[in-house]
């Protein structure tokens, strides 16, 4: 296998991931605060007053600071003439190789948060059932569309 020129995702994807974690953290903090308020006068409560809320704030605060950095650091990809190569994972490294001749169709998608940063995801659907959807996140929207057009050149209507 030739040496691949692996590229990082767009750095703005870290902000998108951070915002998603903070939204989840806000929901968890509200739930923890509700637990604290509902059990305010309960002498047999499971947790001391305020511990649930403070714990949620600390856990999600640290997660929003650390996880996007590490996730970005270990997410790389490359597109060659024959395959799309993805490498990702903080604790469990996953390497995915998608032969371009196996691609059935593709989407370029973006959610509300990604739209604010002009980012998009390239979603590649392959033949087969296991792992038939491969998502390449954190691309500039224009770049995701260009990659889709480049990969489209390899899709044929003939059976392989």
Explain what you see.
- This protein has 160 residues and is α+β, with helices and mostly antiparallel strands.
- It has two domains: 8-72; 77-152, PH-domain like (Roll).
- Helix content is 41%, strand content 26%.
- It has a four-stranded antiparallel sheet.
- Strand 6 and strand 7 (133-140) form a beta hairpin.
- Helix 1 (13-38) packs antiparallel against helix 2.
- The two termini are 22 Å apart.
- The model has no long low-confidence stretch (mean pLDDT 89).
Q: In whole angstroms, how far apart are the ends? A: 22 Å
Question: How many extended strands?
Answer: 7
Q: How would you sum up the global shape?
A: elongated
Q: With helices defined by DSSP (H or I, 4 residues minimum), what is the helix count?
A: 4
Helix content: 40-55%
Please state the CA-atom Rg, rounded to the nearest Å: 21 Å
Please report the first level of CATH classification, the CATH class of the largest domain.
Answer: Mainly Beta
The chain-level mean pLDDT equals 89
CATH topology of the largest domain: PH-domain like
Classify the secondary structure makeup into a structural class.
alpha+beta
Order of helices and strands: EHHEEEEHEEH
What about the largest sheet?
Answer: 4 strands, antiparallel
Q: In CATH terms, what is the architecture of the largest domain?
A: Roll
Low-confidence stretches: none
Strand order of the largest sheet: 1-2-3-4
Total discrete domains: 2
Strand content: 25-35%
């Amino acid at each position: 296998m030739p040496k691949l020129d692996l590229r990082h995702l767009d750095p703005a994807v870290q902000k998108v991931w951070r915002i998603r974690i903070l939204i989840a953290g806000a929901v968890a903090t509200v739930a923890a605060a509700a637990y604290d308020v509902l059990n305010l006068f309960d002498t047999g409560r499971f947790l001391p007053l305020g511990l649930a809320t403070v714990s949620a704030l600390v856990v999600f605060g640290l997660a929003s600071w650390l996880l996007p950095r590490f996730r970005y650091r270990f997410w790389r990809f490359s597109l060659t003439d024959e395959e799309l190569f993805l490498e990702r994972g903080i604790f469990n490294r996953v390497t995915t190789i998608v032969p371009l001749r196996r691609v059935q169709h593709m989407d370029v998608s973006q959610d509300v948060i990604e739209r604010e940063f002009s980012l998009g995801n390239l979603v590649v659907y392959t033949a087969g059932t296991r792992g038939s959807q491969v998502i390449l996140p954190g691309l500039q929207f224009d770049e995701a569309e260009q990659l889709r057009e480049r990969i489209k050149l390899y899709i044929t209507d003939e059976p392989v």
